[in-house]
Amino acid sequence: MIGITDASLSFGNLRLFARLTLNVASGRTMAILGPNGRGKTTLLRAILGFQKLDRGRRHAPDIVGYVPQHGASQVRLSGLEVVTMGRAARRGLFGQPDGTDADAARAALVQVGACHLADQSYDRMSGGQRQMVLIARALATGSPALVLDEPTSALDLGNQARTLSLIAGLGQARERTILFTTHDPNHALAVADDVALMMPDGEIVQGPVGEMITPDLMSRLYGVPMHWARIAERETRRAMLPAFTGRDVA
Ligand SMILES: Nc1ncnc2c1ncn2[C@@H]1O[C@H](COP(=O)(O)OP(=O)(O)OP(=O)(O)O)[C@@H](O)[C@H]1O
């Protein structure tokens, strides 16, 4: 399990959450959605223990695979070396990486489809390439828990689809507990079992994905009309879109 129980956090007058209990059960995948500045990153950081809570308890394994929203960019290491850093917590403070660590790091790069980044210098990579490497680093930890802060935000559509398939596959195996933030309700629809909505009015609503991704709740969440669109003729799956999409160019 990963999450927080009966937790509160404010910065001065800005109340992010109060008496919040938000837990992801083992093997489940939860998405957190909310407008900019609502507190998604801070909530993840609190769960990871990087942000002190005003009250309440956090629950997380000792090692968590974490993909931050903005990783440091001035890192003069190769892609493979950055991914190998994901093994550091297993080695202890003075442990040196060995062959097993290098193998695990290479396997993680293969898993995210980023072998070609192994020898590239991290500080010369694009934002999306760095994001792929950081996802590989999180997988390389071997942790049963993954916390990903907007893991697809810098990725092109192909890499978004590949990353979502990867997360969906990990989720379906039920061996990892996954918590991620996203600005796209369709990404939650694609991979999450459960969803937490950090509403603009301060309320936090949680439930199964099918009950949370609705036009009504999404419109309230983002303050613009949202509606269902069919993905294609004869296709039962639907996409949740804001009203400005679908301009008629014919
Ligand atoms: N250490 C801090 N001290 C004071 N305010 C902070 C601190 N950390 C975050 N905040 C504030 O908390 C709010 C939530 O920030 P956070 O980054 O968690 O939002 P977010 O939902 O992840 O936003 P976005 O979708 O834009 O990434 C912001 O107003 C931010 O300025």
UniProtKB/TrEMBL annotation:
Pfam families the UniProt entry points to: ABC_tran
GO biological process per UniProt: zinc ion transport
Coiled coil: none
Keyword field: ATP-binding, Ion transport, Nucleotide-binding, Transport, Zinc, Zinc transport
Protein's UniProt keywords contain DNA-binding: no
Residues in ABC transporter domain copies: 2-225
Alphabetized GO MF terms: ATP binding; ATP hydrolysis activity
UniProt cross-references to InterPro entries, sorted A to Z: AAA+_ATPase, ABC_transporter-like_ATP-bd, ABC_transporter-like_CS, Metal_Ion_Import_ABC, P-loop_NTPase
Keyword Ion transport tagged: yes
Family membership noted in the UniProt record: Belongs to the ABC transporter superfamily.
Protein name: ABC-type iron complex uptake system ATPase component
Organism: Saliniramus fredricksonii
Lineage: Bacteria, Pseudomonadati, Pseudomonadota, Alphaproteobacteria, Hyphomicrobiales
